[in-house]
Write a structure and sequence with these properties.
Layout (H helix, E strand, L loop, with lengths): L3 E6 L3 H6 L1 H8 L4 E6 L4 H6 L5 E4 L14 H11 L4 E4 L8 H9 L4 E5 L10 E3 L9 H11 L32 E4 L11 H13 L4 E3 L4 H8 L6 E3 L6 H9 L3 E5 L2 H9 L3 E4 L6 H4 L6 E4 L20 H4 L3 H12 L1
Parallel strand pairs: 1-2, 1-4, 2-3, 4-5, 5-6, 7-8, 7-10, 8-9, 10-11, 11-12
Helix pairs in contact: 2-6, 7-8, 7-13, 9-10
Length: about 325
Amino acid sequence: MSGRVLVARLDDAGDVLLAGPAVRAVSARADEVTLLAGPRGRAAAELLPGVDRVVVWRAPWIDHRPPPVSRRDVDDLIGQVRGIDEAVILTSFHQSALPLALLLRLAGVGRVSAISNDYPGSLLDVRHVVDEGLDVPEPERMLAVARAAGFELPPGDDGRLAVRRPLPDVSRLGLGPGPYVVVHPGTSAPARTWPAERNREAVRELADDGHRVVVTGMERELTAYVAAGAPGAALDLGGSTTLAQLAAVIEGASVLVAGNTGPAHLAAAVGTPVVSLFAPVVPAGRWAPYRVLTVLLGDQDAPCRDSRARVCPVPGHPCLAQVTSEQVVKAVRELNQ
């Protein structure tokens, strides 16, 4: 066994869900796994099999609205991770593991592993170098770091995304009997969002096509607007679910319609097919729903490609605005066959 091991993934819920296979590989050998997450990743961290403890810390070099660097916050992190024997730092291709590696060294962590194409000096014990020109799916990229550190998935683990079982009972949310389609209109970045009016049109046309529709998300005004596309035929669950409850709602759906956002990865974790409205600001090869039936919509060669933009840099948002509600209905039909 490898003692107390910390796995770090400091950004959003979807990113944390994609770290699941790597976490399970570490858990197979560790006495205890602590997952270090950002505030927006906490709920996802608590859903991952293999996690024994969650520590939340807002990293100034990763958070979308970075806090100022303060000695107090740094001391807080160091205090929370004292006693950790080893750390595996998981990052995206545009993030650096080295600031966190430095803080973990100050906390007394004896062995640190991460991807770093920059010279890490004494900050890393295991430096995993990758070709950033290859679009490797994010779960596989992170699992490769765990393997480089000496952690393998246990026998029988197929490396798919997963969530803790059992999921909550959501029967009281009004879902009722029979199949339904979930439409999740929101994302964490405007550049990845299909226009609200298109989501509303899709809800109406899905209802006209005979589907019951459930609209989910934290943005109550948005979900109410979208669900109003099919009065009486669409259930608005805006602001009504925890992440674990949302996983259960999505598991009960025949299809999820969503952008590149955490619920798409929840769908992959529970095996629900996805109509993915995917803006190419990041590569679909890395970030599309992992190992689940998916229809990918959106112009993957649009001018915003690989820009990593959070707000669309192209007037009219053409990569997604050109996707029609008719295309979404057709994709749902394909996935329901």
